[in-house]
Structure formats: C-alpha cells, structure tokens
Amino acid sequence: MQIGIVGLPYSGKTTFFQTLTEVQLDPTALQKRDANLAIVKVIDKRLDEFTEIFQPKKKVNATIEIVDMVGLQKGETSGSSINAQFLGKVKTNDALIHVVRGFKDDAVPQDGGLDMVRDIRTLEDEFLFSDMAFVESRIEKLEKDIQKTQKDDAKKELAAMQRWNEHLQAGNPLRTMDFPPEDDRYLKNYQPLSAKPLLIALNLGEDDIARANEIVEEVRKTIAWENVIIEPFSAKIEMELGALDAEEKAVFMEEYGLKESALARLVRSAYRLLGLQSFFTVGEDECRAWTIRNGMTAQDAAGVIHTDFYNKFIRAEVVSYEDFMKNMTFAKCKEAGVFRLEGKEYIVHDGDILHVRHG
To answer: What is this structure's pTM?
Structure first.
C-alpha cells in the first residue's frame, strides 16, 4: 500500500513526512522537484502484546510506503495548469493524505490569510479539472474510434466516460460516485485523481490542539464529502515528540492530551479508507501482522502468507484477538471453546490469529 502526501506550499507536508517516517531529509533534497519515499512500520498495540506474551525471535510489523510528493510551487494551482510531473506521480498512489495548513506563523507567508476550507477546495478542484480534461479527451477519441470500428469495447468505455463526465461536470469528485462493476477496469487503468480515497490532515498550531475536535467539526460542516476522513495533528508537536525517549514522550503527550502518535492514528484512518485490516500469525519463532482487504477469506489470507498455502489450503485454526487476550494461551482458548477450525470460505476478521493447515 502506497500513500502519497500532497499539500499546497507552506502547509508543512514535508515536515509531516519526516515526522511520520522518522526520516530526516538533507536540506538539498528539500529543494529538489522530486518525491521522497520511506517504508514505515504500522504501529499496532496488538502485535506488541503478542510479542510480549510469546517472546519470539522476530517481530514483524505490517508496512506501508509513504511518499512525499513533488511539491507544488506558487502559481501552479490555477485551472488545470498543475504540473504534469505532480499529476503523474500522484496517480500511482492507493490513497492520498492532503496536509492542510491550520497554523499561524509570521515567518512563513500565507497568501490570503489562513483558510483551511479554501485550501482543501483548491487542491480538490485541481484534481477535478485534471479528471475532466482526461475524460473529455477520452470521450472525443472514443467517439471517433466508434465511427470507424463500431467496436463493443469502445462503446462500453464511452458509456462509462460519459457517466464520469456527468458526475464531474456537476462538481463532484469521482470518489463520491457509485460505480457499476464494469467500471473497475477503467478505474484501475486510468487512476483518476478525484477517485482516490482522501485523508485530510489539518496541521494545527500548538495552541489549537486542545480544541482539535471542535476545529475538525467546523471543517466537516463544509467538507462533507464521501470517502474522506479528516484528522487533526500538529507537525511541530510530533517533531518534538520524535526527539524524546519513551518516558519523556509519555509526559509530553499527557501534557498535550495526546493518547497516541499521529502516525498510529493516521495509518488506522488510511486502513479504514482503503478497506484494509490486519490478521496475525504468532509463536515463539515469529509474531507478524499481515495486511488484507476486508472481506477476504481464510484461503485468500493464507495466500498472502505464501502462494503454496493458498493452493494447498486445508483448514485454518482461528481465534480472535479479544478471545486470546481473555485466555492468554491457545490451550485455554480451546477449553473455552473459542479456538476454531475454519474452512476456506471463512471471512477473516480484523485481529484474528490464524494458523494455516496446508498440504
């Protein structure tokens, strides 16, 4: 899973990237018109608890790729003039985090004053304009092709593009559209920007963190889009947290009323946006978190571990996280009747512990 970080100039998106990934970029890298990428461990307290219980030789977190996209420069957000390099790189991401400036700083210029809703709409409009231009171009090409060839595939795609165009022309991002199954291949091939799941990260000042929920609700009154999650954070506070040891961090977080890091909360929100969940394999050799899509079967999950497990799947031994933590051992889970044998059609739930029996 790859998540791209986007944002207008001076929004703090690169600071946000460095905070999430704990990667300190060289100052010269910040001037380059290119993307920075880091692999980030997904923080999961359940995996930490399993590790404490089993004391394995190895602990393996699930991971995601975080990409700090090539920066937008002043003057590049007007109409459909957003640069092609930015658009091309954004299309490859599974989801986007839009970092929005919500902090005041006299040392960092802010044209037009602080306005989070305006900034959210500015970038969203760019994605809409880009998708409109692409869809209109496809419609024009398909209509010409149909006149010459009358191919059924072209007619089906034209119908899809016309549906998309109608939705976009009404000012609606494609992520709010109810797509029929036949549109799946076009979504996969063309990767329209306004269809990307979107997490809006409000980069608040230190003084505003205490009323973060109130600020989020105010923004939600205007930005009530589907498939969009809004989360508050403070890049400055998170940077300070990253420099502290565990004990100092706990005191600091309590002072600001923070229950968890921005990374943990934002990754969980990204999972929710993308319809993802985790299951676990545990034991003395290794405790590992695996990422799968909601609704996947035990056989599908086995295939994520190894393709042979999918092909030679027999049964899965399953116990939920909650049931295991109540009993603390597999033997006691069996005694309590919560340790089950499930077949290939069993739908895996978030937090399940699986042991795959295979041929």
So the answer is: 0.84
Q: Are residues 316 and 177 in the same domain?
A: no
Amino acid identity for residue 267 in this structure: V
Q: Taking a C-beta distance cutoff of 8 angstroms, is the pair 280, 292 a contact? A: no
Q: Which single residue is written with the structure tokens 């990307």?
A: 196
Note whether 37 and 146 are same-domain residues. Answer: no
- Cβ contact 267:42 at 8 Å: yes
Tally of domains in the chain: 3
Q: Which helix (H) or strand (E) holds 303?
A: helix 298-305
Could you tell me which residues are beta bridge partners of residue 38? 66
pLDDT at 194 over 60: yes
Q: Which of 181, 169, 176, 200 is nearest to 95 (CA)?
A: 200
Specify which residues 250 forms β-bridges with: none
With 50 as the cut, is the pLDDT of residue 53 above it?
yes
Percent of the chain with pLDDT over 70: 91
Averaged pLDDT, 247-271 = 80
**Residue 152: in which H helix or E strand, if any?**
helix 152-169
Domain of 327? Answer: 295-358
Residue of 162 and 257 predicted with greater confidence: 162
Tokens 């923070």 -> residue:
258
Q: Identify whether residues 88 and 154 lie together within a single domain.
A: no
pLDDT in tens, 124-157: 998 999 999 999 999 999 999 999 888 899 999 9
- Residue 353: helix, strand or coil by DSSP? strand
| Tokens, residue 359 | 């041929």
CA neighbours within 13 Å on the CB side: how many for 265? 14
| C-alpha span between 303 and 297 (Å, rounded) | 10
> Six-digit token pair at 139?
């419609």
Q: Of the candidates 141, 161, 194, which is a domain's last residue?
A: 194
Mean pLDDT of 187-213: 92
CB atoms within 10 A of CB 203: 23
Q: Looking at the predicted structure, is the pLDDT value of residue 24 above 80?
A: no
Contacts of 259 (CB under 8 A, 6+ apart): 253
Counted residue by residue, the chain has a size of 359
CA–CA gap between residue 123 and residue 100 (Å, rounded): 10
Task: State how far the Cα of 342 lies from the Cα of 356, in Å rounded to an integer.
Answer: 10
